[in-house]
Amino acid sequence: MAAAMVSSAERAVLEEEFKWLLQEEVHAVLKQLQDILKEASHRFALPVGGSEGAAKQESFVLSVAGMDQVKGVLTLQGDALCQAIQDARNHVNQAIYLLMNRDVNYHFKTGSEVLKLMDAVMLQLSRARNRLTTPATLTLPEIASSGLTKMFSPALPPDILVNFYINLNKLCLTLYQLHVLQPSTTKNFKPAGGSILHNPGAMFEFGNQRYEVSHVHKMECVVPWLNDALVFFTVSLQLCQQLKDKISVFSSYWNYKPH
C-alpha cells in the first residue's frame, strides 16, 4: 500500500537515500560495532605483567549477600577463569570476524544482505550475553570432578566442595559442607540432579562414597569489567537493531520482502 502512494520523484529520492544508507551508513555502523566489540573482547583477557610475561593476579573480595561481616579474599592467577568467560569472548570474537569480513570498499547491494549480517552478529552477541546471564547447571559429582577444590592454597578440607560461576556482573563462589553417609543410612539415598545452587540435604555419590550436603554458603562480588562487557553487549545489540529498523523502513516502500 505504501509503495503505491509514492510518486516517481519521491521514489527516486528514496532510492538515493537507500543507496547512501547501504554504501555509507552501514559501513559507519559496522566500524562502530567493531570498535565497541574489540573493547568488550579486551575485557575478557587478563593483563600480563613483568619482563617474563608472568600473569598478573586479580583479587576479589567476596561476601555473603546482605552480610558485610562475612567476607573472603579470592586471588585468581593465570588461566584460572570460569569457562563462561572464555565462551563469551569466543562469541564476541566471532561477531568481530563477521563484521570485519566486509571491508570499507565492500558494496552492499540489498537490504536483505545487511539484515542477514545483523542477524548473524546479534546471534553471537546474544550467545555471549547469555553465557554471563545464565549460569550452567551442574550436578554435585560434576562439581566434585571439576578440580576447583584442588585450586586452593592452602588446600581445603576434604569435606568441602566449591563451585565458581558468573552471574551477570558478579563472580559467585558456592561452598558446600559435606558429611559422609554411612551404609546404614543410605536406604533413602536419592542423588540430586543438575542445579545452579544445591540446597542442604542434596545427596550425591562420588568415588564409591555417598555424601549429603549439610550447609551451603554463597559468596559473591561485583567484577567491574564484566559490567563493562554487558554494557558493550547491550549497546551493540541496540545498534544492530536500529540499523535493521532503518533497512526495514526503506524496504516497506518496495514490492519485495526484506528477507
From TrEMBL:
One example of a Gene Ontology biological process annotation: neurogenesis
UniProt cross-references to InterPro entries, sorted A to Z: RAVE2/Rogdi
Localisation per UniProt entry: Cytoplasmic vesicle, Secretory vesicle, Synaptic vesicle
Annotated signal sequence range: none
GO cellular component: nuclear envelope; RAVE complex; synaptic vesicle
Chain ranges passing through the membrane: none
Family: Belongs to the rogdi family.
Protein name: Protein rogdi homolog
Upper lineage: Eukaryota, Metazoa, Chordata, Craniata, Vertebrata
Gene responsible for this protein: ROGDI
